[in-house]
Amino acid sequence: MFFMNRVVAFAAVLTLAATVAHSQDRSATTANPPGADPVIGEQLFASTCGFCHQDGGRVAGRGPKLAGTDQSDTYLLNRIRTGKEGAMPAYGRAFSEGQLRSLVAYIRSLKDEGR
Amino acid sequence: MMTLRKRVYVAVLAVVAMGAGACSMPASTTDMTKTSAPMADASANDWTTYHGTYESWHYSPLTQINTDNVKRLRVAWVHHPGKSTRGLQSMPLVSNGVLYYTGSYSRVWALEAATGKPLWSFFPKLNDDLVAAQTHSPYTRGIAIGHGKVFVGTVDGRLIAIDQKTGQSVWDTKLINSEKLTVGFTGAPLLVKDKVIIGSQGGEWPGRGPIFGVDATSGKKLWEFLTVAGTEDSKKTWGNDSWRTGGGGGWMAGGYDAETNTVWWGTGNPAPLYDWAGFEWKTSGPRPGDNLFTTSVIALNPDTGALKFYHQELPHDAWDFDSAVGEFVMINRDGKKLVVHPNKGGHVFVYDRKDASIVNVWQLVQNINFVKGIDPKTGALIGRRDLPLGKHTNLCPAIAGGMSWNSGAYSPKTGLYYKIGQEWCMDLEVIKTTPILEPQAQLDIGANFTLRNPEGGKAHGHLSGRDPVTGQKKWEVRFTEPPLASLLATGGNLVFVPDARGFLRAYNAETGQELWSHNNGIGHNGGIISYSANGKQYIAVATGWGSLVGDEFGGLFGEPFKSMAKDAGSIVVFTLE
């Protein structure tokens, strides 16, 4: 049941993505792997990740700055899946693989403004 | 020997009998303190419930340690529980010469109060995968004791009773489907007569924030009050069935008015935390309407869980300035029985205890612009600053609040209420996120934000001593960073402040003059109490750093917070040399 809810929710994300992308004037890049959409990633980030990674991951806050990170995609995916005890929750059972990759795509889309 | 229940009743009756005098005549001190002590004689040496007593004074009437001799305060003993992830955040309790406390992962210890000698420990087996998936984890803010048991909640949704003498589990009741909701219990339970009352985590989590009443003897769940749409009428304050995912967890222990048999409890904010509907919040957005009973104080019958009355401090809270702060400071003045409750947004609400009608609202912090004001006669918000989709600058206070969840203190000797205020602001961008229509596993925030200094100044904190009803300030001490721990007032005319940098400081309760300090070597974000064992008075403080508010300090204030350990913490106990 819970899995189904997540599937429904993810489907809703996909449905809404184009509209929101337009309203927010944020365009997806074409260089991302299949299923990875930085616009979806941005929405997920604002729901769950922005609580700790300030200004959408552009500056350090509770969590580290993510813009311009030199960590690999594999590292980022694993960190989001498994978290870090006492510092970051494990999202492996909360997000689908597509959502995880969208989050990484969003992080990659951030410009490092040196803040 | 008196039971806890009897002792608390005696204490409550003593306070009720003396309360009016204590408030209206703060100058007549010593004798009044002896008789109006929040803990009756049988328990004056102890600290038997989270807020010290049901009246939430965080006050010990003990006078052995006082303004004249506090300079001779030295460490008596220390206890290291190990694995103090996010620091110790709990309030120790003391009963009959034994100190009980809980650390991270709901691990409970019983120690000889005079020496720190371990008597027993209890380490519950938790769902490790669930703990790893939680944001507000793995800390535990406190316990309750009585009926020969120690009661502790767990982050995987259980309430456990432990035999007070042996440390063995007596019962273990699953109350929340934490595997689905990813929330459990972090706050302390409150024991009222034969009921253990505990509230779920979860403001910005898409659940319905239940508060539970559990039989202390059997562990059987007796009632459950849903802080989100807990009544049919309140369901109408959530448009589009948004009550299904409303948040609102009442995670901190509240207070109890024995005279009217009323439990006072504060509730969390609604989810999603920020609402892209902005000014149109009454009719559109993810949660149209007032969103009862989030960001409210509610009065419950402890026997049935039935709602008696309530006041919503911030209708349709759009800022995460919740009412979950657990202290309900009960005092009497001019024939009225009052309760004083701080709201995270920086205002202090004063209510009539008979029906939660507003007596006054006053402002504790300076940097507030989420509203222009709050009507002190009605509690109505004046000039609210709703936050439509897009970028906003200089919202004050910041999401960390004008006040945090740890408690202030009230002294019947001085008649003053001591409380920490937090001065900081933030910039944010509200983002239209995917509507969440069913309970899910993680946060529902709806914005990105960055903490910042207030315009024209630096972020900081302050301790002030004030009239609890009018807010009139008698003295104030400024801190370069807001202290995040609870405060303690004592009959020795002292106020103790465990600060963020690691110093425990003692102030003259009348004047605010600093009299003593000791460096515990790490910040504080937990409790502090005083008690007596074998004829000696002790001060016990929880140390350790790493709360979610404290996590902001590295980015905002730099060192020593950038490098401060977040996996350490201990109980440090002081007495006179």
Instruction: Indicate the low-confidence ranges of chain B by residue numbers.
Output: 1-42
> How confident overall, as mean pLDDT of chain B?
91
How would a textbook summarize the main sheet of chain A? none
- Broad CATH class of chain A: Mainly Alpha
| CATH architect. name of chain B | 8 Propeller
Helix content of chain A: 40-55%
- Number of strand elements of chain B: 38
Mean pLDDT of chain A equals: 75
Give the helices and strands, then pairings.
The complex is a heterodimer of chains A (115) and B (577).
Chain A (H helix, E strand, L loop, with lengths): L1 H23 L13 H12 L4 H4 L15 H10 L14 H13 L6
Helix pairs in contact in A: 2-5
Chain B lengths: L3 H21 L5 H7 L22 E2 L12 E7 L13 E3 L2 E5 L5 E5 L5 E5 L5 H6 L10 E3 L2 E5 L4 E6 L5 E6 L3 H4 L8 E3 L2 E5 L10 E6 L5 E6 L5 H4 L19 E3 L4 E5 L29 E5 L6 E6 L16 E5 L2 E7 L4 E6 L5 E6 L9 E2 L6 E2 L7 E6 L13 E3 L4 E8 L1 E6 L16 E6 L7 E7 L6 E7 L8 E3 L3 E5 L4 E6 L5 E6 L8 E6 L2 E7 L10 H5 L13 E6 L1
Parallel strand pairs in B: 1-32
Antiparallel strand pairs in B: 2-38, 3-4, 4-5, 5-6, 7-8, 8-9, 9-10, 11-12, 12-13, 13-14, 15-16, 16-17, 17-18, 19-20, 20-21, 21-22, 23-24, 25-28, 26-27, 27-30, 28-29, 30-31, 32-33, 33-34, 34-35, 36-37, 37-38
Helix pairs in contact in B: 1-2
Keywords:
heterodimer; A: 115 residues; mainly alpha; Cytochrome Bc1 Complex, Chain D, domain 2; 5 helices; 54% helix; 0% strand; globular; disordered N terminus; B: 577 residues; mainly beta; Methanol Dehydrogenase, Chain A; four-stranded antiparallel β-sheet; 38 strands
Structure, explained:
The complex is a heterodimer of chains A (115) and B (577). Chain A is an all-alpha fold and 115 residues long. Chain A has one domain (2-26, 34-109): Cytochrome c-like domain (Cytochrome Bc1 Complex, Chain D, domain 2), CATH 1.10.760. Chain A contains 5 helices and no strands. Chain A has helices at residues 2-24, 38-49, 54-57, 73-82, 97-109. By secondary structure, chain B is mostly beta strands. Chain B has a single domain, classed as Methanol Dehydrogenase, Chain A (8 Propeller). Chain B is built from 6 helices and 38 strands. In chain B, strands 1-32-33-34-35 form a 5-stranded mixed β-sheet, with no helix packed on it. Chain B is globular. The two termini of chain B are 31 Å apart. Residues 1-42 of chain B have low confidence and may be disordered.
